[in-house]
């Protein structure tokens, strides 16, 4: 029974301290963001605009942050490339921060326990 | 048998999950995720405000200023950037904490999976995280849909629903959405479904890439 409990405890720690794959998170965040922007652009293009109005006048404002982006098929592709890289960097950094905070926490516990052991001796 | 009791492979006696350890692990990860997301979202608000200020536009922050409706004191200005940093950090941390509290419900299933696989790994820090698309979709979908419902209700209760032309634009993507309570509810349900599907895709991509990289000799 003790072995089973130890194994279950170890499994909880593994689930809690599992490290994120930074590259995989970067690829996943980038791809999801790129798909979202492509879909958002495509929906506006397919629906069209009411007479006398331009298509996607508000989504076009993304061009402020993503130079060259506008609501068109070409602009959508360019925007998707931009946000893929932005998402990839964001995901990569988030994963690194997540892993780093876990490592720092473990290091802190080890140092603290070593310190108390030293003091006890 | 309680929810947190399970059979080990090859065993016939149920092993109990150490509830105290589980709660401590969830609490730790909630704090860490809140810290990471709070820092990133606060910084993102700060950078976006300054980008809007220094992009050389005729009316800097014409649209970003609208965030001031939801974040008291925020505007596209030097002071507003710091207020945005505060609100971004606070809201990012709160949302991340709520997200992890929901997502952590997948941990007992992960533990079960580990035990069923034989539980032979000794390297605690060498395990790579895998996302559970269902729990991720549930957590993120609930938070984002809840966010839409709260912001819509806020616009209705402050009496500016009819002036909220930009919020109405969401109807382009969420058919039937309007700045009313029923419209907000319908929009929230639709948004939940969209986010849930995106989370399934996201988890599939992440797990596939992580599995592929895990196979390669390092």
Describe what this molecule looks like in 3D.
The complex is a heterodimer of chains A (121) and B (218). Chain A has a domain at 20-96. Chain A is built from three helices and no strands. Chain A has helices at 2-17, 22-47, 73-120. In chain A, helix 2 (22-47) runs antiparallel to helix 3. Chain A is elongated, with a radius of gyration of 24 Å. Chain B has two domains: 1-122, no CATH class; 128-218. In chain B, strand 1 and strand 2 (14-16) form a beta hairpin. The longest helix of chain B is centred in the first third of the chain and has 35 residues, at 19-53. Chains A and B meet through helix 1, helix 2 and helix 3 of A and helix 1, helix 3 and helix 6 of B.
Features of the shown structure:
heterodimer; A: 121 residues; mainly alpha; 0% strand; B: 218 residues; two-stranded antiparallel ribbon; 6 helices
Summary of the model, kept short:
The complex is a heterodimer of chains A (121) and B (218). Chain A is mainly α. Chain A has helices spanning 2-17, 22-47, 73-120.
In total, how many beta strands of chain B? 2
Count of separate structural domains of chain B: 2
> Helix segment count of chain A?
3
Biggest interface between chains: A-B, 46 and 55 residues
End-to-end C-alpha gap of chain B: 43 Å
Identify low-pLDDT runs of chain A: none
State the end-to-end CA separation of chain A.
34 Å
Assess the beta-strand content of chain A as a share of residues. Answer: under 5%
Mean pLDDT of chain A: 87
Please give the largest β-sheet of chain B: 2 strands, antiparallel
Spans of chain B with pLDDT under 50 lasting ≥5 residues?
5-12
Helix-strand sequence of chain B: EEHHHHHH
How many strands in all of chain A? 0
| Major sheet of chain A | none
Structural class of chain A: mainly alpha
H/I helix tally of chain B: 6
* Structure class of chain B: mainly alpha
């Amino acid at each position: 029974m003790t072995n089973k409990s130890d194994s279950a405890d170890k499994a909880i720690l593994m689930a809690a301290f599992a490290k994120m794959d930074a590259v995989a998170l970067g690829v996943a965040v980038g791809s999801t963001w790129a798909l979202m922007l492509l879909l958002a652009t495509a929906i506006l293009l397919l629906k069209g605009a009411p007479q006398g109005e331009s298509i996607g006048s508000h989504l076009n404002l993304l061009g402020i942050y993503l130079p060259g982006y506008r609501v068109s098929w070409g602009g959508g592709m360019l925007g998707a490339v931009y946000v893929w890289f932005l998402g990839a960097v964001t995901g990569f950094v988030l994963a690194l921060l997540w892993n780093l905070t876990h490592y720092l926490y473990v290091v802190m516990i080890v140092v603290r326990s070593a310190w108390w052991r030293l003091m006890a001796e | 048998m309680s929810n947190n009791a399970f059979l080990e492979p090859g065993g016939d006696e149920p092993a109990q999950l150490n509830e105290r350890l589980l709660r401590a692990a969830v609490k730790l990860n909630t704090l860490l995720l809140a810290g990471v997301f709070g820092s990133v979202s606060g910084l993102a608000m700060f950078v976006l405000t300054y980008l809007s200020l220094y992009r050389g536009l005729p009316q800097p922050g014409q649209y970003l200023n609208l965030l001031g409706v939801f974040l008291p004191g925020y505007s596209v200005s030097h002071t507003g950037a710091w207020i945005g940093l505060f609100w971004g950090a606070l809201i990012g941390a709160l949302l991340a904490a709520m997200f992890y509290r929901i997502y952590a419900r997948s941990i007992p299933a992960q533990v079960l999976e580990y035990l069923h696989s034989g539980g032979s790994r000794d390297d605690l820090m060498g395990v790579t995280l895998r996302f559970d698309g269902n729990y991720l979709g549930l957590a993120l979908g609930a938070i984002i849909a809840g966010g839409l419902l709260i912001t819509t209700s806020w616009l209705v209760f402050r009496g500016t629903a009819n002036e909220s032309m930009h919020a109405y634009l969401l109807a382009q993507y969420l058919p039937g959405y309007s700045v009313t309570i029923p419209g907000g509810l319908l929009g929230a349900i639709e948004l939940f479904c969209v986010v849930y599907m995106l989370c399934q895709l996201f988890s599939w991509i992440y797990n596939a890439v992580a599995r592929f990289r895990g196979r390669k000799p390092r």
